[in-house]
Amino acid sequence: MNAQNEVDALRYSYTETPLSIRSAGMAGTFGALGSDLSSFWTNPGGIGAYRRGGLELAFGFHDTNVSSEYDEITSENSKANFTIQNTGIVWKRSVKNSDFGTINMGVAYSKINNFHQNISIRGEDIPSSLLDVFTAQANGTAYDDVYNSFPFGAGLAWDTYLIDPLDSNANSYVAVAGKYGSDQSKLIKRKGAMAETVFGIGSSYLDILYFGASIGFQSVRFEESSTYLEKYSAEDVVDSFNFEEKLNTTGTGINIKFGVLAKVTSWLRLGAAYHSKTAIGLTDSYSSAIDSFFKDNTHYNQQSPDNSFSYSIRTPSRLMGNIAFVMGDYGVIAGDYEYINFSSIKMSSTGLDNDYDFSIENQTINTIYRGTHRVRAGLELRIASDWRVRAGAGYRQSPFVNGVNENSALYSFSLGSGYRHDALSVDLGLGYNMNTENYYLYNSQLVDPASLAINKVSLTLGMGWRFD
């Protein structure tokens, strides 16, 4: 039940652009401005725009609320977490007697994906059952081989007496419950994050053209535990059963980024950047279990073996364009555009003993995912000599070509403020993201999807220091 597939591929490809303490209030639209920690992940050309060295540290608070609707029943759940959002340092070295003013080098760390999320789904009197899935899975398999063939699904249902033999000659099976409908619920708990440590270098030419490059090293930690429960009517011999699944994923990845900025006029800045594909090596550890409870007070339990599987994902490359209008001492208006082709994700096996080719999964990825457009716009106004206020908004297209998640676009809004005096800066950013998704409790041919409304509030607070 925990086979690696297109869901995993998208999970580790659908990352967020890290926000610095300043860009957090502008929805991340700082690509054309540079001289900011976010340059390491957006447009590395901005590393070359630093006039002074800098050190920055930001903390984040995230609260994700998920409201689900399944069979006209609404459930809600939420999860909050604190984190070191990002930190980094940049050094400046002057180049004497040259049109290249400085060479700037630095290292930065940031979260690029936050997996913390709790989801509750509940429905009543559903005419189908997860046991229908297990029955179809076992059909055609000899009785003595069911557990060995399907130790994470149908084999557990067979050993806990939730599916029975129907015809020994045809090796067919039948569910022992669910004929009269069932009440269904599922609790999903997720945690973990993706983070990236970036080493960058940049320079400038005649203080007009800024360019830079960075190499990023990613780390992945994802944990998911879910409990699915079915309860039956008085007519069934089974009272209930629960199906538990656990998944723990760890991994590392690497990519490179290139960028350039141009000071076209005193008020216009333009930029462009390219992010390579990220090669990520992953290892999944997973297990499952079933508990069945019968009306005669008998109880059965079966555990799957603990299994692990190593594989790799090549996430999509990214193309980015940036623009900013500098309004003298009054502030800036900025915009970013990003293109990502999620259909180009590739999965492959790793390890000498693993020859699985992922051709089915890669074909599915190519079919259901597409190239996406993302736009962000932000505003910063200087309201006093040392104070600034910010606002921003963004739109991220759904990566799905069609189907139930075709319209699962992500909308983001932000507000912020900052104090900057000589070498010291203190900034606060408040962000709000919202999107909808559809989630199937099991086979989409048997059950309607649950509709999920996902709302995330993020608070970023940090400080920065500039030095010569």
Question: What would you note in describing this structure?
Answer:
With 468 residues, this protein is mostly beta strands. The protein has a single domain (6-129, 177-467), classed as Beta Barrel (Porin), CATH 2.40.160. It is built from five helices and 21 strands. The strands form two sheets. A 14-stranded antiparallel barrel has the order 1-2-3-7-8-9-10-14-15-17-18-19-20-21. The chain is elongated and about 90 Å long. It starts with 5 loop residues before the first helix and ends with a strand. The mean pLDDT is 95.
Major sheet: arrangement of strands: 1-2-3-7-8-9-10-14-15-17-18-19-20-21
The secondary structure category is mainly beta
CATH class bucket: Mainly Beta
Strand tally is: 21
Uncertain runs are none
**What is the total domain count?**
1
Shape: elongated
CATH superfamily: Outer membrane protein transport protein (OMPP1/FadL/TodX)
CATH architecture: Beta Barrel
Order of helices and strands: HEEEEHHHEEEEEEEEEEEEHEEEEE
Please report the distance between the alpha carbons of the first and last residues. 56 Å
Instruction: Let me know the largest β-sheet.
Output: 14 strands, antiparallel, barrel
DSSP strand content: over 45%
- How much helix, percentage-wise, in residues? under 10%
- The helix tally amounts to 5
* CATH topology descriptor: Porin
